[in-house]
C-alpha cells in the first residue's frame, strides 16, 4: 500500500507540468478519516491519502469496503459512513461512487467510524439443548454464551450478569470485581470473562422463627432460602439481643451444628438443600444505674456511662463494678457509698429463669466531694493550697464544707528585667473560702512587668521625671510611660537613645519588653570672643584654613535662627546671613546664632584675608583669617560599605578604610566652588598624603575630592598588620609639614 501511495505522488510531480501545458487538469486529493484505512481509486488500492492530476471532466471510481479490520487489531474495525467533499456530503450513500474531475472540487474523503469488539468468554453451547448458566447483557444486548458485541469506540459499556436458576454469579475474572454490574470506557478491544457457579439452596432458620440474622453482613429475617455457589465461603452471625414482632427480647444461645457465634460457612457440593438454625433463648432485661446519673460502671470488663442497658440469658454469670472514686463530666468528684443490692462496689450476678419476666435493676449510690481545680495565667507557676505547693494546674479534693486557704507570691522573677506580678484570684471572693459540692475552678492571674532602665551621657547627668512613677522601675506590659529630663547646668539636651529615639523632650515609651532610655547631653559652648574662623573639623596650626576647604565662623549673635544649606549649588544667603570675601559671596552650609559653616574660595593664595559678615540691618562685621596651602582636619572614618568604624564595627588588619576631612590642599583639576562634586571626572589632591598611627607612617592608597558633597576630601588606606592594639591608636594626616587633628582608630584582630 505504501509503494502505491508514494507512486501516486511521484506521478503527480513528474507529469503535472506537462499536463498543465497541454490541457486543463484538476488536482484532486483522495483520503479516509482513518490514516490506515484502505480505499481504491480506479481499482487501485491506497492507504492514508493520495493526490491525483486528472484531466478536467474525466470520470473516476472511488471505492471503500463497508467495513474493514483495523490493523493490527483483529478486534477493531472501520465502518464506512459516507463520502464527503469540501462542498458537503455526497448524496449517494454507496461506498462505491463515480466522480468527474473538477478543479472546483479539491478533495474527496471517505468518512469512517471505529468500532471495537467486547468479547465474552464464559460458555459455549455446541450441541443443544444446553443448560445455560445465565445471561450477560452488554448495553442492552443479551448474550447467552461466548461471542463478540461490536460497539463504537469511546462508548461507555455497561455489563450486567443475571444467573439462571441453579446458578449464581461468581464475579468477573479480570480485576477480581465481584459486582454483577460494572462499566468501563471502550477505548480498545476488550475481553471479558464472566464466572458462574453451580448454586446450592441454603435454608437459614431461627428458633423461634421470625428473628434476624446477618448473612454476608446483610440483615435477613428467618426463615429464608438463599442460593449460594458451591465452593464459595459466606459469613453468618446472630443479631443479639433482639426483639421479635411481639416485643419479646431474645438472646442468641447457639447454632444447631455447634459452630462459633460469628462463623464462616463454606458451601459443599450436593444435590439437597442445607439448613442452618440459630437458637435463641428469652432475654433477662437488666438496667444498671448510678445516683447521680451518668457516672461510669464496668460490666464484664467493659466500662461505660450509666444508665447501662444489658440483655442477659438465664444461667449466665456477670460482674458489675462501680469505681470507688470518679470524676463526672462537669469535673465534680464522687465517692462510692453502696449498691442497692449490697455494700461491695463489685457485684457478681447469677441470672435465673425467674428474672426473665421481672428483669434486673440495680443502682450504685455515690456521695459528693468538693473538687477544686487550681490554675494560673500563665500556667505552670507554683502557688500554695493550705500551705502545700501546687504546680499549676493541679486538683485538690476536700470534704464538702472544708475551709481552703490559697497563697501566691506577689512577684515572680522570670529573667533579667522581666517578672510576673500577681493581679487577682478568679473564681473565689478571697484567698480563704469554704468548699461546696461539685467542681470549682480558681485561677491566679499574673501580669507581665518589665524594667525601664534610665541612663545619661555624660553619666549621672540631668534630673528625670517619669509619669506614672515607679518605685522599682518596673511597669506592667502595655503601659505608656512619659519620660522627661532636666539638663544640668552648662549642658543642653540633644537626643534620646536606647529604646527611645528622637529629640522631643518630654517624650513617651510603651513598655513591651525590658527597655532602656538614655539621655544625651551636649555642653553649652562658650561663645568665642572675638569672632574667629577655623577649620570645621577642628583646630589647625594657627587656626589657618586651606583654600577650597570648609571653615567655621564662631561668634555671638551671628543669626537668630538655625538653617542648613541643602541646595546644589549651595546658597549664598542663608537665614538672612551672607559672607563676603574679596568682593564675592561665599557658599553657605550652615547658619546658627553661634556658628556659620562656609566654603573658602579655592583660588585664594596663601596669606591673610577678611570675611565680611552681613546680617539684615546689623553693622557689617569684618573677621580676619589666614589661608595656607593645606590645613587638614579629619571628620570621620568608615568602611568601604559606608558604615562607620566603631566599637560595634571595628577595622581589621588589611582592610581598606576611608578618611573624610577638609583642608587637604589643592586639587588638579579643581572642582567648582559651592557645587557638589560629580562622580566624574576624578578630582585628585595635588600634594601627597601620609597617615600616622601612633607615630607609624602609612601611605595613602588614594586621595581625591569626595563625591556628592562640597569642600570634603576622602583618603583611603589599608590598616597595616602588627599594630599594637593594647593601647588606643590615634590617627592623624600629614600633608607637607602640616598635621591634622587626631581621631581614634578601633582595630579588632
In brief:
The protein has 749 residues and is mainly beta. The protein is built from two helices and 67 strands.
Given the helix and strand composition, which structural class is it? mainly beta
Report the principal-axis shape: flat
Largest sheet: 17 strands, mixed
Using only C-alpha atoms, the radius of gyration works out to 55 Å
Calculate the mean pLDDT score and round it: 91
How many DSSP helices? 2
The percent range for helix content is: under 10%
How many domains in all? 5
How much of the sequence is in beta strands? Answer: over 45%
- The CA-CA distance between the termini, in Å, is 88 Å
Q: What is the count of β-strands?
A: 67
> Low-confidence runs (pLDDT<50, min 5 residues)?
1-22
Model description:
- With 749 residues, the chain is mostly beta strands.
- The protein has five domains: 2-116, Immunoglobulin-like, CATH 2.60.40; 121-192, no CATH class; 378-523, no CATH class; 532-628, Immunoglobulin-like; 633-745, Sandwich (Immunoglobulin-like), CATH 2.60.40.
- Helix content is 3%, strand content 53%.
- It is built from two helices and 67 strands.
- The strands form twelve sheets. The protein has a 17-stranded mixed β-sheet that branches.
- The protein is flat and about 140 Å long.
Defining key terms:
single chain, 749 residues, mainly beta, Immunoglobulin-like, 17-stranded mixed sheet, eight-stranded mixed sheet
Write the layout of secondary structure elements.
Blueprint: H1 2-22, E1 25-32, E2 38-41, E3 44-47, E4 49-55, E5 59-64, E6 67-69, E7 76-85, E8 88-89, E9 96-100, E10 107-120, E11 134-138, E12 141-143, E13 147-152, E14 156-163, E15 167-172, E16 181-185, E17 190-192, E18 194-207, E19 212-215, E20 218-221, E21 224-229, E22 233-238, E23 242-243, E24 249-255, E25 263-266, E26 274-291, E27 296-299, E28 302-305, E29 308-313, E30 317-321, E31 325-327, E32 333-339, E33 346-350, H2 355-358, E34 360-377, E35 382-385, E36 388-391, E37 394-398, E38 403-407, E39 411-415, E40 418-426, E41 432-434, E42 438-457, E43 463-467, E44 474-476, E45 480-486, E46 491-498, E47 507-510, E48 515-523, E49 532-535, E50 545-546, E51 550-554, E52 563-564, E53 577-581, E54 584-585, E55 588-591, E56 595-599, E57 607-615, E58 621-628, E59 633-638, E60 656-662, E61 690-693, E62 696-699, E63 702-705, E64 713-718, E65 729-735, E66 738-739, E67 743-745
